[in-house]
Write a structure and sequence with these properties.
The chain is built from 21 helices and 29 strands. It is of the alpha/beta class and 768 residues long. The chain starts with a helix and ends in a 12-residue tail after the last strand. Bound molecules: beta-D-glucopyranose.
Length: 768
Amino acid sequence: MKRLFTILAFVGTAVFSYAQPKLASDNIDEVLKAMTLQEKATLLVGGAKAAMVEGVTSGMIAQVPGAAGNTRPIERLGIPGTVLADGPAGVRISPTRQGTDKTFYATGFPVGTLLASSWDIDLVEKVTTAMGNEVLEYGVDVLLAPGMNIHRNPLCGRNFEYFSEDPLLSGKMAAAYVRGIQSNGVGTSIKHYAANNQETNRNENDSRISPRALREIYLKNFEIAVKEGKPWTVMSSYNKLNGEYTQQKEELLTTTLRDEWGFDGIVMTDWGSKENTVKSAKSGNDLMEPGNQREIDRIVNAVKEGTLSEAEIDRNVRNMLKYVVKTPHFKGYKNSDAPDLKAHAMVAREAAGESLVLLRNEKETLPLKGNEKVALYGVTSIDFIAGGTGSGNVNKAYVVNMEDALESAGFTLDKTLKNYYKNYKSYDDALKALTPGAGRSFFNVPRIAESSIPAAAISKEAEVNDLAIVVLGRNAGEAADRKQMDDFELTSVERELLQNVSTTFRAKGKKVIVILNIGGVIETASWKGLADAIILPWSPGQEGANAIADVMTGKVNPSGKLPMTFPVNFIDHPSSANFPYNYQGQQVRMPFGRRAPQKDVDYTDYSEGIWVGYRHFVTRGVDVSYPFGYGLSYTSFNYSTPVVKASSDGFDASVTITNTGSVAGKEVVEVYVQAPDGGLEKPVRELRAFAKTRLLAPGESQTLTMHIDDYSLASFNDATNSWEAPAGVYDVMFGGNVCDIRRSAPYKMKKAKTWSVKASYPIVDNGI
Ligand code: BGC
């Protein structure tokens, strides 16, 4: 009898599991087969909050308050919902929840631009390993990061989230970022794929780019990140590329991403809902975010009508199932909601110190003794900018400001000034509170206006203090680009403050230090002479001010270098001719046809082609304020005669770096290559590799060896739709920055090489 029961139970389970399998990592095809059309469409559209879809059992809804999005669960088949949260400077969730006093703060890490300024792959991996632990412990499956669009123009409002003007640096940083996060068993979503280089009209703007510039500049970084980082997901962008929305462009999402680069994860849309859901799904956009019922209906109807094939959606659903089985929600991970925020704050502080850039240090102004009397100027000193606004903002428990950081490092701050700024801040806050809505905006969070300080007061302060520090601040964020006036350029109040402080303190033989607490590049050429030292910490996260103090006292020797050029004038960037730098509107959400198409708003011609950043400045000999790759140290380094040794697919480049100064320090070595004549016109220098030494004691040496393959030396030929590397002698240059080449060695490529691609990207003349 017992045996009979066992047999019946077995048969019952078998029948039941045949009809209704539960998702496991090895039965994806079986589950796919068991799914109804409605269920399939449900899995392709985010929005667990609306998971009660007709005919689909809800339940297992995964939600984390404040997280940007989810994928929907299908309980019948054991498919859990998963959670997606921003990124990139930490995990963005709500810090408080109803019904509990417990807080859910996340660490505010340095922004992407500062991480890239480290030029340190191991450091970035260390930071994102810590960040990824918070993703996991707060119950999130995918961090919507890193942001990695190229800094085409200094005024893109989201540059602070992004890494660099150079695709190699950007791609390597992104790959390191992805590896660190994903080492925790959670995913990343590299974004925004692709050519999303401005915020103005970001939902509709058509980026028109030559295939060459697209391949060499705007896709190259994604190519490196996909191949070397293996992200779980990619986020397609809002904008159009050569006439089509990127999220509906098959060449981009399938041919290039999957067939050429081998991506095997899911593609999700950036947050919004475009009309042609079916085209997105067909093109290889697996997941619509944040998702709504209309999108589900469109997919279901299109399959019924035969305009979308079952095979097409099965491909996407399979990708989704492969994604789901990797997630902590699927694996049943019990998150603690209690990551070690103290330990992570220390990682954030270390990272900021290792990455910030020393731009100027006349007559060894820095480091300081650490016990000086300081006159601290600038509202940003007490309203320090840890990160940007919008989805890139992190809800952190605190932000250390400059005042507190300097005091805890041992400096004595001028009391009169301290009181003045304290009162000014409360006054300004009170003023804002009178303005309805002020301070509540997600996108354009208002900041305290800079205050002018009377000359007589500065005179007194110069009497009683040893030195002056002026903190200049710039905030930026999603949905708006920065402006040339009063943003790229200093405001008249800032200029006057700097001028008065500089003249007055210097007249008394006292030094002036400027701290640039900014999110994107500003003009420096006209005023840098007013400062004895300039520190560039960007927006360095919640512990950044402490890191600045560490550098000021010499506890940390700066070793960061610029990931982009600081031009003399904004218009020196060729992209400035086609950038909405004085556009007054915010986001324009108007489809074409309802008004005359506007240049740089409805479409942007990337007429500069590949001549982005230093590729332009160095090749054409245009003066800059600070070149790409630039950064000072408290010590000096010698570069040995380099060795370039051919290998099977390229060459190994080695150089020995010796610390020739009197304090320990790290050096970033940048390897630029100039290709021989004979192929396409090329920049005279292109970054092809880089490496950073460990901390070298005075007199100590380290040999750095970097591998460069022939493929990475190639340029893209529009005429043949292929990558080409001409035969001949390549000049391999080893430099401290793009204008400071210390050594060079030849590399001989015996035969020309070509690599063909599958997708093509013609600029489509769509009549606008
Ligand atoms: C941003 C993305 C972000 C998403 C979710 C969008 O507005 O462009 O970067 O991940 O919102 O918050």
